[in-house]
Amino acid sequence: xxxxxxxxxxxxxxxxxxxxxxxxxxxxxxxxxxxxxxxxxxxxxxxxxxxxxxxxxxxxxxxxxxxxxxxxxxxxxxxxxxxxxxxxxxxxxxxxxxxxxxxxxxxxxxxxxxxxxxxxxxxxxxxxxxxxxxxxxxxxxxxxxxxxxxxxxxxxxxxxxxxxxxxxxxxxxxxxxxxxxxxxxxxxxxxxxxxxxxxxxxxxxxxxxxxxxxxxxxxxxxxxxxxxxxxxxxxxxxxxxxxxxxxxxxxxxxxxxxxxxxxxxxxxxxxxxxxxxxxxxxxxxxxxxxxxxxxxxxxxxxxxxxxxxxxxxxxxxxxxxxxxxxxxxxxxxxxxxxxxxxxxxxxxxxxxxxxxxxxxxxxxxxxxxxxxxxxxxxxxxxxxxxxxxxxxxxxxxxxxxxxxxxxxxxxxxxxxxxxxxxxxxxxxxx
Length: 430
What we know:
Elements: H1 3-23, H2 32-43, H3 49-71, H4 78-100, H5 110-136, H6 148-164, H7 180-189, H8 203-220, H9 225-249, H10 256-283, H11 287-306, H12 315-319, H13 331-334, H14 340-361, H15 374-386, H16 397-416
Helix pairs in contact: 1-3, 1-4, 3-4, 3-5, 3-14, 3-16, 4-5, 5-16, 6-8, 6-14, 7-9, 8-9, 8-10, 9-10, 11-14, 11-15, 14-16, 15-16
């Protein structure tokens, strides 16, 4: 297949994913009177809590369309492609909302139409800005051949998503009503001074690398690690406590102990960069440094994917996951009406984007089955399949699709910026 056919297939595949996610179990009904009533309701939308959460989910889903559209463009005319991505999102959303008018179990809304269209626009714009930023950094100092802000930005956003909507602690509090500020006051009244879950010490391993990468970004900008790490530590601590305060606005419990733990992890990571970044860069150069970065990041992805690292021993629980339900994109998240269902989509995507960016300039092999993105795609598949035997996790094809999309976006964005492979990160033995 030519590049044009590959890119066209990627666009068609993503449109199919959106249609599958939004139109599954539509229960189509030809009752025109009922459709008219639903149309009247759609033209006078409500703006409640559930609508806000649905809006976040819509933006996350259609932002992927904008990302795919920009990264598969062959014209190079960025403004035109952003406009086409936005119009495509508008037409696709209007089609979905129109079909939902004939469904007794779905709710069409102008809010959904607006957020879907905005999501496509936002995804296209962010992708264009990322490509421009990587292109503008060519020729500058770089630890890995690709700007470290690609890694730090993706991983940092994933950490922020975890702080905002933790995987194992994102169930909204019962009995909390009202707007964001009213909810915040109610949650603050019931917050323990330093509530702490010892089982969450695992978060230190996940949050500390964000501080390390942030110091590397400042290092590429000319700051010494000695001057950079206090700035990163202070900014990271402020962000972690701000994220914990935001819990109250989205009706999640506030735990100052967890905010303290997360802040301490970022401080630890920043200090570790101050202590060991220079010795590591002197000890490892070229392919050895890239290999360490790739395998280290792959280990982090495994930790994110397989936490809490407790095996599932109930065979019935394992077999119950092997159903068609888990093969429908976004099906498991659609039944949730909380912020986590939207944040998780973004988190999974940005978590894998850095790996694709590094593989664009340091593939494991320059040719063959270990070249390009294939090793990362196999890793994403293995991590998701591993959920079947992890206690507290379950297999969901959505995670695998988001991981593949993030990998592809990172790889294509770096290549579109004009960067090319420096060599094989895992050179064959002589």
